[in-house]
Design a protein that fits this description.
Number of strands: 9
Distance between the termini: 38 Å
Shape: globular
Strand content: over 45%
Number of domains: 1
CATH architecture: Sandwich
Radius of gyration: 15 Å
CATH topology: Jelly Rolls
Order of helices and strands: EEEEEEEEE
CATH class: Mainly Beta
Helix content: under 10%
Number of helices: 0
C-alpha cells in the first residue's frame, strides 16, 4: 500500500498560486516528494515561466505527524515544518508571512524552485491537509 495523497491547484494566476495538499497515511509516509513543480505553473501574461515561489500564507490541519515543506536543491532546505506529534494530536492553524513578502526559497546549489514534502513520525491513519498560497517569481 501507499499513503493516499492528492495535490490540487486552486488558483494559478500571474502573481499567485494556491495549492491544496492532502495525505491519509498508511504508515509509509513521504520522503522529499515533489508537491510544487514551478515549471508546471502557468506562465505570466508576458509568457515568462515561473522559476520559483515564496510561501505567503498557509492553512493547515495535521494529525499525528510532522510535515516538512522543503525547498528542492542538491541538498533540500527546510522552509517550514507543520504539525506536532502523535501525543499532540491534531494541530490546525493559519500562518501569514505577507508582511515580509513570504518565506523565500533560499536553497543553494542545485536549486530547482520546486517545493518537496517529507513526513516525520507518521503512522497509519495520520493525516494532513495543507493549503499554500505562493507568490510566483519569474
Amino acid at each position: 500500500m501507499a499513503d493516499a495523497v492528492t495535490s490540487q491547484t486552486l488558483v494559478d494566476g500571474d502573481k499567485t498560486a494556491v495549492i491544496k495538499l492532502t495525505n491519509i497515511s498508511d504508515g509509509t509516509g513521504e520522503s522529499s516528494v515533489k508537491k510544487i513543480d514551478v515549471s508546471a505553473l502557468n506562465a505570466n501574461s508576458n509568457g515568462d515561466a515561473c522559476t520559483r515561489v515564496s510561501i505567503t500564507q498557509v492553512w493547515y490541519d495535521v494529525g499525528g505527524l510532522r510535515a516538512a515543506l522543503e525547498f528542492d536543491a542538491s541538498s533540500n532546505v527546510v522552509g517550514l515544518v507543520l504539525g506536532g506529534s502523535a501525543a499532540a494530536g491534531t494541530t490546525m492553524g493559519y500562518m501569514d508571512f505577507r508582511s515580509f513578502n513570504g518565506i523565500k526559497n533560499n536553497a543553494g546549489s542545485g536549486i530547482t524552485g520546486d517545493i518537496d514534502l517529507t513526513t516525520h513520525g507518521h503512522t497509519a491513519h495520520d493525516h494532513y491537509t495543507i493549503i499554500l498560497e505562493l507568490s510566483k517569481s519569474y
